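Re-run with default settings, no changes from the original entry. Doing this only to confirm the output is reproducible before filing.
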Amino acid sequence: MNMVTKLLICLVSVLLAASVMATPVDTYEFKTTENQQRALSLAHQLRCPQCQNQNLVDSNSPVAQDLRLEVYKMVDNGKSDAEIIDFMTSRYGDFVLYKPKLDSKTYVLWLGPIGLLVFGLFIGFIFVRRQRIQPAEADSLSPEQQAELDALLKESKANK
């Protein structure tokens, strides 16, 4: 085989190997389909403590797998959504919630964007107002400049 063929085979092999992605399959069997739907909904609402940007369903980390299994078991044992969320937040903090509760610790999180918007509008208002209040400086010529301009214009007319 020539070198180009070998290189092409290697490239295709690498591309095929990179495109294969194994995803873990949860084999937990729920008592009812309602429990399954509720557990999946809860797992979508909880963030993986290790990944930090994925929910428990999307994450492949061992921590997420364990927490998913814990959520599934708690749902099947008849725990309410509030009890499961309280358990997770007591163990991992408010960080595990994608939608944190509104309390004294999260005021900045919830009210910060509104405060920044109001601050930006205030700065914009001040900037626009300053632009309107400043008198437009007339671009008038000094008497010497006016005399020089007149001389240039007379000279230009005379040359025509």
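The mean pLDDT is 83. Residues 145 and 151 are 10 Å apart (CA to CA).
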